[in-house]
């Protein structure tokens, strides 16, 4: 397992390691937290038969698969990611077009999509405005950009106590920030969307109450397990405390708030 922390510049690596043996489970449990709200918003935005849609940073693919169902055989659903190994079955079945791309470097076809969606991607990237501008160019006139990124300030807030898991949150998110992750990514999306010339820009947030021991809680256990070697090496928290925190997350008597997931939506003007 490699867990390199680098400073935030254009050449920085994505903080999570795609080849970690638990990365697929980390991505699937992330979907368990956020998919219901994302899918509701797809319906509200009117994604339907015949649309051409692009999911960027598709991860394990659940959002792209949902989009493919909504657009049906007359539409087109493309799933793009740095690593597409988790999408190869869908590509084989022909349900998704799969593009292995680095969105920082690679171009997208212009004026091609009715919807571009990216969840928990932009908050990890350097050069965010350039990426948003690329998304806007990829939209057809009248097409929708739908970004989802978080504000991490609510994470682990709980009736269990003011300091519940706050030490590991501060340590893990501090290191992620050094590696280029923005803990206020959802707020930044709104500013970038407004600056990109989109119309009818709106933003709203949702949080999920997570029950200890659930599939959703497992995501946070895996996040901490992944970050643990860096946290311990930096002397921020001991391995004993990390083990204790992972046990606390497995206890159904604990309930806590997720991050705030901020959904930003804007429309590309129909006329230039
Ligand atoms: C935090 S995960 C979120 C996955 C998925 N969107 C979700 O919400 O379930 C971020 C995803 O973005 C991908 N990613 C990171 N940097 C990328 C880049 N520069 N270009 C394309 N994809 C990237 C990662 O490989 C990973 O699958």
Would you write up a description of this structure?
This protein is an alpha/beta fold and 272 residues long. The chain has one domain: 3-Layer(aba) Sandwich (Rossmann fold). The strands form two sheets. Strands 3-2-1-4-5-9-6 form a seven-stranded mixed beta sheet, with helices on both faces. Helix 1 runs parallel beside helix 2, helix 5 crosses helix 7 and helix 7 packs antiparallel against helix 8. The protein binds S-adenosylmethionine. S-adenosylmethionine (SAM) binds next to helix 1.
Overall mean pLDDT stands at 94
Q: Helix- and strand-based class?
A: alpha/beta
The portion of residues forming beta strands comes to 15-25%
Separation of the first and last Cα atoms: 48 Å
Total strands: 9
Instruction: Note the overall shape.
Output: globular
SSE topology string: HEHEHEEHEHHEEHHEE
The fourth-level CATH homologous superfamily is: Vaccinia Virus protein VP39
| CATH C-level label | Alpha Beta
Q: State the low-pLDDT regions, or none.
A: 1-10
CATH topology name, in short, is: Rossmann fold
Structural features:
seven-stranded mixed beta sheet, 8 helices
SSE blueprint and pairings:
Elements lengths: L22 H22 L7 E5 L5 H10 L4 E6 L6 H6 L3 E4 L12 E7 L8 H11 E13 L14 H13 L6 H11 L3 E8 L2 E3 L3 H19 L5 H11 L5 E3 L2 E8 L5
Parallel strand pairs: 1-2, 1-4, 2-3, 4-5
Antiparallel strand pairs: 5-9, 6-9, 7-8
Helix pairs in contact: 1-2, 1-7, 5-7, 7-8
Bound molecules: S-adenosylmethionine (SAM).
The site of S-adenosylmethionine has 20 residues, from helix 1.
């Amino acid at each position: 397992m490699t867990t390199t922390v680098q400073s935030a510049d254009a050449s920085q690596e994505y903080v999570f390691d795609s080849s970690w043996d638990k990365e697929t489970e980390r991505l699937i449990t992330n979907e368990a937290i956020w998919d219901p709200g994302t899918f509701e918003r797809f319906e509200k935005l009117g994604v339907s038969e015949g649309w051409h849609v692009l999911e960027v940073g598709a991860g394990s693919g659940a959002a792209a698969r949902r989009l493919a169902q909504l657009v049906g055989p007359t539409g087109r659903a493309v799933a793009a990611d740095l690593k597409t190994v988790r999408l190869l079955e869908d590509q084989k079945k022909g349900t998704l077009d799969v593009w292995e791309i680095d969105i920082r470097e690679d171009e997208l076809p212009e004026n091609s999509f009715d919807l571009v969606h990216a969840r928990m991607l932009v908050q990890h990237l350097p050069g965010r405005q350039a990426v948003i501008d690329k998304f806007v160019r990829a939209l057809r006139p009248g097409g929708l950009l739908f970004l989802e990124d978080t504000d991490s300030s609510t994470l682990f807030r709980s009736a269990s106590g003011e300091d519940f898991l706050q030490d590991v949150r501060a340590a893990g998110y501090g290191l992620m920030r050094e590696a280029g992750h923005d803990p206020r990514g959802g707020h930044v999306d709104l500013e970038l969307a407004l600056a990109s010339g989109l119309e009818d820009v709106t933003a709203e947030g949702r949080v999920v109450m997570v029950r200890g021991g659930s599939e959703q809680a497992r995501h946070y256990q895996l996040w901490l397990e992944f970050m643990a070697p860096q946290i311990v090496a930096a002397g921020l928290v001991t391995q004993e405390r990390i083990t204790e925190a992972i046990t606390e997350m497995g206890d159904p008597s604990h309930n806590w708030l997720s991050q705030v997931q901020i959904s930003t939506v804007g429309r590309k003007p129909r006329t230039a």
